[in-house]
Amino acid sequence: MDYLRAFIVGGTICLIGQILMDKTSLTPARILVSFVTAGVILGALGIYDPIFEYGKAGASVPLPGFGYALAKGTIKEVQQNGLIGAFTGGIKATSAGIAAAIFFGYLMAIIFNPKAKS
Predict the structure, then answer these.
(1) What is the pTM of this model?
(2) Mean pLDDT of all residues in 74-96
(3) Angle, to 10 degrees, between the axis of helix 63-81 and the axis of helix 85-112?
């Protein structure tokens, strides 16, 4: 059942992105930034919590999940360390994911010899 819920939540997020690409003049980069920003806002307001609990990986892996992690980390650090937590919380909360993305991206570049688009 967890797989089905993850598929539904993640698929819905992807569906929203596809509709935005097809029906608006927004560029993919702006849609990605909008998704992260929406995750931050929904996370800060506590609206993304039930979505995250229901969809688990389907809600945490897409870009709104990254924004949600930023918001949760920042809120936690502000509660513990005050104003300085506003600057360090998001970095601490997402550092493992960012490091993994850089590491695996580099590893794939070594293995597959990427070429520039022409």
Answers:
(1) 0.81
(2) 94
(3) 140
The CA distance from 55 to 21, in Å, is: 23
Q: Tell me the domain boundaries of the chain.
A: 2-112
State how far the Cα of 14 lies from the Cα of 45, in Å rounded to an integer: 22
Beta carbons within 8 Å of 30's beta carbon, 6+ residues apart: none
Structure tokens given for 40:
């931050």
Give the integer Cα–Cα distance in Å for 23 and 39: 22
Q: pLDDT value at position 117? A: 72
Q: In this structure, is the dihedral angle defined by the CA atoms of residues 109, 95, 47 and 38, taken in order, positive or negative? A: negative
* 51: pLDDT strictly greater than 90: yes
CA angle 5, 70, 80 (to 5 degrees): 120
Region 73-94: what's the mean pLDDT? 94
pLDDT the model gives residue 114: 75
Q: Torsion over CA of 25, 30, 35 and 39, rounded to 10 degrees? A: -130
> Is 85 within 8 Å of 77 (Cβ atoms)?
yes
